[in-house]
Structures are given as structure tokens and as C-alpha cells.
Amino acid sequence: METGSNLYLGLVHYPIYDKRREIVASAVTNFDIHDLARCARTYGLGGCFVITPLESQVQLVERIVHHWMEGAGAAYNPTRGESLSLIRVSRTIEEADREIARLWGGKVEKVATGASPHPNSIGFGVLRRFIEEKSRAFFILFGTGWGLTQEVKESADYILSPIEGQGYNHLSVRSAVAIILDRLLGDRTL
Amino acid sequence: METGSNLYLGLVHYPIYDKRREIVASAVTNFDIHDLARCARTYGLGGCFVITPLESQVQLVERIVHHWMEGAGAAYNPTRGESLSLIRVSRTIEEADREIARLWGGKVEKVATGASPHPNSIGFGVLRRFIEEKSRAFFILFGTGWGLTQEVKESADYILSPIEGQGYNHLSVRSAVAIILDRLLGDRTL
């Protein structure tokens, strides 16, 4: 089994916080889909779930994936389709979680991420070793907007340590995904 | 001196290759500016140069930066202005290089990046140690489009090893910047 194939990524558009800490559904961003799919393919992930309950957004993601996998984009740049083949759309976190559980005989653990420290967070090295054991799947959730809700964090099996910046913790979700995948699956001997 | 303050990032829109390996100028992407500025601020970089010879693109970058530093964006989300204050626009790589050289008494070395292996490339660990010495500045160049030209690579003091994916080397420039900054400046003991 390839390293990374027991790791699944979830890009959460609902439920998340907005600027005023109200719970909202955010719009899907085309750049997010491409960047996350390309990262997921680079690190050999099992899959990448775009989570949105909005029917128009579900269709948008399906249209993007179709364009690059089978439409005009497939001829223009085949490497995009190769990465976008990892994209799945789910209406809820639970729906995606059930799909992974079905593939892994129920053995899937949810990992929440965020920019703020949390008293019970798990470090990158520990989660890296868990993934390397390959005995179960991990579903790592990234919030768009102002991040995952408290409820989602509390329902996760683990909360991953934040990326510590020099007094600034406002990375884009695209950058956070790239850095976290490299810390969990990249070559640490470099 | 803070770690990272002797590292400068250059996002090159000319000269770069297009899909057909012709040398072109690419258009500035709003997401790139934000994502790179936020990464640069997170890792405490000295600055981030957007390199484009096109006057319309120079003005576009200046408008984006102004919007978030002093315009309506500054009130809406002050953390964006904090990161975008690191953005400078230069017409050429040489112009940016001269600006860094002026700040560092001439001691600046150029580092080219790319997705393909190169026989004389420098590893992440070696460049990391060079940066930690803090005796000189490093100007790390990222190509948009299909990457930096051969000429730019050959004129650099170093060529950084590529990020090795599992048989797939097509990360976005946004993801590559995030991963490379974390490898050069992030906590490697995690």
C-alpha cells in the first residue's frame, strides 16, 4: 500500500464560521479544488471530498471535474484530470465519513484542523506515525471561511496542532493543506 | 534578527515558459498575491516581489495592495493588509535583485525553483542551514505558467531540489511556495 492512500482530505463549506462567528455555508472556490486535488495527487492521498450542502455548488464542482477529466480541459492539460479524479462531492461531513468507512471496514478517524491552539491537540509527528501504521484511515477536515465550527472540532477524534507562524496565523486553506500534507507525508529527512 | 528575514520571494511572470515551451509573460493572479503574502508573513520573510514587465499588471498589483492596506479592505480584514505590506512590484528579476542587494550590502544569492530534477541542485537541508547563518540574503524565484526559463535557472546561484511527489509533479505555484517555505523555515522537529 502506498503511503498516503489511507489519508482522505475534506474541504468543508458547511458548517463553518464567517467573520462574525456565525455558522454559514461558503461558496466553492475553483482554485481550492485544483490546488487541493493537485496536492492530494502529489502525496498519494486516497481521496479529496468537497463538502457542500448547496445543490448549485455540488453541480459546479461536478462541472469543473468533468471539464478537466472528459471535456475540453482533458486535451488541454491531462495532468489536471489526473488530480481531479481524486475529487468527490458530499453533502455533509457524515456522508463523506460513511463513504470512507465503507472502504476501510469502519476504521476511519476524523482529524480537525484550525489556526488556533487547542489543549488536546495532537502533534504532526504523532499523526504522521499513526498514518504510517496503515491500519486505519484518517479523514482530515479543513474549514473554509473562518474555520470549522466548535461542534465539528468536538466531534472529531483528533484536533491537529496549528501551523505556528511568527505571530501571524492567517494562511489560506490552500497553503495550510499544502504544508500539512507535506508535514504528514513528505520526506522529513531532507 | 528574526529567522526568515533574510529570505525574499520572487513570483516571476516574465520570463517564463508557456505550455509549448515558448517564453511569455503570464497574467497576475489575485489568489497568488494573497496566498504568497500570507505565507511570507507567516514565515517572517523580508519581502515578496511580484515580477511583471506589463504596466497594466503592475497597476493591478498596486491596486490590490492598496485596497487591503488602505482602502475598504483594510477595515474589512486588517490581517490581509498586514501580509500584503510585504508585497513589492518589480519590472524585472534584476530590479528586485538590486533592491535586495542594496538592503544587504550586495550580499544576495539567487535560488531558482522548479518541478524537474537538476544535476546541480541544492537540497532543502543545505539551503536551510545557509539561511540560518544569516550572513547574506537569499532571493528565491518561483515561475508561474510552465516555470522559469533555462536562462533564469542558469543565472541563479543555486537551483533548489524539486518537491518529489508520488509520480506527479504538478503542484500549483501557491502550494509549492507554502511547502518550500515550511521546509526552509518551519519547525523540523515536529
Account of the protein in words:
- The structure is a homodimer of 190-residue chains.
- Chain A contains eight helices and eight strands; from the N terminus they run E-E-E-H-E-H-H-H-E-H-E-H-E-H-E-H.
- Chain A has helices at residues 30-42, 55-69, 72-76, 78-84, 93-103, 124-133, 150-155, 173-185, and strands at residues 7-12, 16-17, 23-24, 47-51, 87-90, 108-112, 137-143, 158-159.
- In chain A, a hairpin with a 5-residue loop joins strand 2 and strand 3 (23-24).
- In chain A, helix 1 packs parallel to helix 8 (173-185).
- The interface between A and B is large, with 43 and 43 residues.
Average the pLDDT over all residues of chain A and give the rounded result: 95
Individual helix count of chain A = 8
Largest interface: A-B, 43 and 43 residues
How is the largest sheet of chain A built, in terms of strand order? 5-4-1-7-6-8
- Strand/helix succession of chain A: EEEHEHHHEHEHEHEH
How many β strands of chain A by DSSP?
8
Q: What is the C-alpha radius of gyration of chain A, as a whole number of Å? A: 16 Å
Distance between the termini of chain A: 23 Å
Tell me the quaternary state: homodimer
Helix content of chain A: 40-55%
Question: Summarize this, please?
Answer:
Chain A has 190 residues and is of the alpha/beta class. Chain A has helices at residues 30-42, 55-69, 72-76, 78-84, 93-103, 124-133, 150-155, 173-185, and strands spanning 7-12, 16-17, 23-24, 47-51, 87-90, 108-112, 137-143, 158-159.
